[in-house]
Amino acid sequence: MISGLTAEEHSIVKGTIEMLEGFGLTETMTRKVTHIVCGGKRTEKVVEGIARGLWIVSFEWILASTKANEWMSEEKYEMADVFPGAKVSRVRMKEEKGFQLHNKPNNSVLSEEEDDEQLFSIRNPIYVCESTKPSKRFLEHIVTLSGGKVAFEAAFASVVVGCPPRRVVDEGVAVVREKWVIDTVATQKRLPHEQYVITNIERKSLREEASDDEQEEDNDEHGKENNNNKKKNRNKKMKKPVIEEDEDEDEYKPSQNTNETMDETADSDSVAATA
Q1: How many CA atoms are closer than 13 Å to the CA of 187, on its beta-carbon side?
Q2: Has this prediction a pTM greater than 0.85?
Q3: What's the burial of 242, exposed, middle or buried (CB within 10 Å: 0-12/13-18/19+)?
Q4: Residue 110: pLDDT band by 50, 70, 90 thresholds?
Q5: Under DSSP, is residue 26 helix (H, G, I), strand (E, B) or coil?
Q6: Which DSSP category does 76 fall into?
Q7: How far from the centroid of its chain's Cα atoms is residue 87's Cα?
Q8: C-alpha dist (Å) from residue 87 to 38, 54, 78, 124, 269
């Protein structure tokens, strides 16, 4: 999967794949995707790639393979210095022969030892609020992909991600920023909640601003620009996670078929092994 590259680099990747063969191109992320050729940005594609244990390699891998007229070994070009969790996840997936542990159904019974090996404990369900960035759907996807359990109501969660409505969170439930989920997956480490907590004062302030936004929208349907500025300021206060925009980044769309075969397409931007 190509992420964070320039248009020229994108073209070179496609040309190299056509020349050397052995890989196909696809727009859809499924289990057949094996590599992400990355420009160094921590995009949604890269975060999901880490969660899946894919090769996260630099553009230099493409250049070296073109020069050698054959696919070079990936180890030298793996971006482990930028994304240390990528190698950890890839090695773990290999040792577990794929998705044996990380993709157990949420209702399966894990021993305490197995649960301790998960990034997100299924004994502590996670609720993701609406209007998060990245999206609620993406965050829930990578939580479950990483072995966690998603709660569909905040009242049943042990951890709440984002700013919840009033009176839906019990005392003692951690309310954290989206960055906690992203950093946990990106580093492949269980991270404590403390440095990601949204305080009660911050939550109250954010709710008041959200209420003001809704009132203004009701009174003036032409006030979109002002509302956008308010939302930008609110995002800054919440210190949104570092997920960089990718020119070709699409909104996450879950596959309808987990066994879906990758179709080759000239406009696609994913890399999948064909052999």
Answers
A1: 11
A2: no
A3: exposed
A4: low
A5: strand
A6: G
A7: 16
A8: 14, 9, 8, 26, 22
